[in-house]
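Example 3.2
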Amino acid sequence: MSMLSCVTRNIMANKRAGILLHRAFGALLALMLSIPMFPCVATAQEKKPEAKAATSLEEERLKILRADLQVQIEQLKKLKQELEVMQKGLEGKRQEQLTKVVKIYEAMAAEEAAKALEKLDDDTAVQILSSLKARSAGKIMGQLDPVKAAALSKKVLARGKGL
């Protein structure tokens, strides 16, 4: 017998064995799938009371969580109201302080007020200039460096548009 025919016969034998093995495994798998793997697991009818109990427990848990959330929402609303009151108080104090500073600038000589304004940041200077009486603001602006006066004037106008 030639080498080629031996190899061919072995391949054919292995192929037949593979087919038989495949069929055997298929039958075994079908048998395994038809047998309940876990006999202790309840059927669908037996599961209903357990499922209802689990659903009931989940519903109770959700009710408790909703109640907790509602309490937290109420607490947050109270805190928000307290913060708003505090913010209004702080804004009132800030406005009082600004009024005092404005009165000080109005009482100063225009040259001195201009020197002081030039050393302030632009936002603070704009707040003060915006709160001054027009006559006082005009005198002070006349004493400022023209470039600084122009820049502050633009910011005063921009601030007016934002109001």
